[in-house]
Specification:
Elements: E1 7-10, E2 17-20, H1 30-43, E3 45-48, H2 55-63, E4 84-88, E5 112-121, E6 129-133, H3 134-139, H4 143-150, E7 153-156, H5 159-162, H6 168-174, E8 192-195, E9 197-199, E10 206-208, E11 215-218, H7 223-237, E12 243-246, E13 253-257, E14 261-265, E15 274-282
Bound molecules: succinic acid.
Length: 287
């Protein structure tokens, strides 16, 4: 599609494009919005630079794409519960939020369409975010593996990250993390089922839909049977040629399609502060 209202510059072979010629603090006209949405579907994650957004403007841009989520375990801003601060203080020695490959909130029956992350404070070096293309991961599998996975269902829950015991959130609290208000609870143990291979509702393309944070196994398989195949799929999904890496600047934005990507926030900036705001758009039930 030739773009008439925005500039679209891919940043890698697999996925990711920077969008120029746009001010997201204003309400976009329909033609510009359609091009942004097209670029989002075509590139899977889109980036914007030098955007000056209040929490209300951030929320308003996200709202054009659908209903907004309020994260059940991580607190939002006062007065803006849909805007979730993602913070790591310079003094924080614990792990960072999002520091493993994952897709967001796949423990919901209707996981996120996507998340829009806005950088307020970034370290002088490090703190990049990586993204992986889950269509490419699926396409690169053998016909035999595709045939098996196409008929399979995966189980997802939030207990590894937000469960009351042995979760990463508990671990963070024990190590003295002050950066984010994260609660744990037994509600993290609720299990939902999703197809292992989902078809994107807008593009019609198939992608792998399992992730290390929230997928616990395959329906009808034991944990021991599930683990080796899941490990293989996790490793396969993030082969370097399926990924891109985004270098943040203050006022940058990343908007990823949670239905066909995974992401990973690098934790390589000890002693420096990083603060982002995330707004997540609700998606539909994977099929
Ligand atoms: C997240 O996983 O939502 C956080 C990503 C990041 O901070 O780069």
């Amino acid at each position: 599609m030739p773009y008439q209202h925005i500039e679209v510059t891919p940043i890698a072979g697999a996925l990711g494009a920077e969008i120029g010629g746009i001010d997201l603090s204003r309400e976009l006209d329909d033609a510009t919005f359609d091009e942004v949405r097209h670029a989002f579907h075509e590139n899977l994650v889109i980036f914007f630079r030098d955007q000056i957004l209040t929490p209300a403007q951030h929320r308003a841009f996200a709202r054009r794409f659908g209903e907004l989520d309020i994260h059940p375990f991580a607190a939002g801003l006062d007065g803006f519960p849909e805007v979730m601060p993602v913070i790591k203080e310079a003094t924080d020695r614990a792990g960072n939020f999002g520091g493993t490959w994952h897709s967001d909130v796949t423990f919901y029956e209707k996981p996120a369409l996507g998340s829009i992350l806005y950088a307020l404070d970034v370290p002088p070096h490090g703190g990049d975010t990586m993204f992986a293309n889950m269509y490419m991961a699926y396409d690169a599998l053998s016909d035999g593996m595709k045939l098996m996975l196409d008929g399979m269902t995966a189980l997802h829950d939030a207990s590894r990250v937000y469960g009351a015991a042995n979760s990463r959130a508990t671990d963070r609290q024990e190590k003295g993390s002050q950066s984010m208000k994260i609660r744990t609870g037994v509600d993290a143990e609720k299990v939902v089922e999703h197809p292992v291979v989902r078809t994107h509702p807008a593009t019609g393309r198939k992608g792998l839909f399992v992730n290390h944070n929230f997928t616990s196994g395959f329906k009808g398989w034991t944990e021991a049977e599930s683990a080796p195949l899941l490990e293989y799929l996790y490793e396969h999904s993030v082969r370097p040629e399926f990924t891109c890496r985004f270098r943040w600047q203050p006022k940058s934005i990343a908007f990823w399609d949670n239905r066909c990507t995974q992401h990973f926030a690098l934790n390589d900036y000890q002693g420096h502060r990083r603060e982002m705001h995330r707004v997540t758009v609700t998606g539909d039930r994977p099929v």
